[in-house]
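Encode chain A's predicted structure.
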Amino acid sequence: MTGHGAYTVVAEGLAFPEGPLLLPDGDLAVVEIAGERLTRIGRDGRKHEISRLPGGPNGAAIGPDGRIYVCNNGGFAWVRQEGILRPNGPAAGFTGGWIERIDPETGKVERLLSEVEGLPLTGPNDIVFDRHGGFWFTDHGKKHGRTMDLGAVYYVSDGLARRVAFPLLGPNGIGLSPGESELYVAETATGRLWAYTIVAPGRLAESNWLSPTGGRLVCGLPGFQRYDSLAVEADGTISIACLREGGIVSVRPDGSLVRRVATDDPYTTNLCFGADDLKTAYITLSGTGRLVSMRWPSQGLRLNFT
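Encoded structure for chain A:
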């Protein structure tokens, strides 16, 4: 099924919003990557800054302690073309990225992690908590002139972090299947969705050496499309935000297409589910600085600790 989504603008005038997150009181939060802040958006659309987050705040998730955990990619340079704001390489003076934790009531920020196994993070991007309280996150990496960082997936529990999947080309969105038996990772550079079998908390099945990422290929996008972040639905469908040909592509775990909902922003970057029935999708249209909502055909999966 393919079509154009009829959406409602929840908030606009945002500086490249990402990481939409439903808060316990029904408000929403987004990061503004270009604005370097975490922003609360009320049900009336009013915006309130929770915290300043220098660098490049990206994916966000609520942890078991009620705090908001943010992947900070370290910052981009920016360019605006034909009314679209987009990243254009690392920020001047870029030195790396990190994971940080924010108290949503006080705005206090605590930096948790900037390297794993002695290697610096170069572009932490998206994050998801499992039911045990640990979290998985992607490190997208950065492009540097003629070179490009290889990306990876990490797992953090009880303050200990380790690399669990490598190498990937621009790993971005990350999510868990309803039973938490599978980990899904969207690769931006290739427009591919990979799946990894989880055998224990923070442990993946032995890598498939025939696969360049060690994972199972779920699907790849035809044409000039690129995957960004993702959200999982209650029935196991994986919905992925798409760049260039902006929209949301939803696929089953076997890779078959369920639907494609088009948007009018080539930087459609992320989505989350909300409302009492989890059948409202909140989508970040980052290039034009908007958070929008639309009724969704199926129910979203409730995230742990939200």
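The first strand starts at residue 2 and ends at 4.
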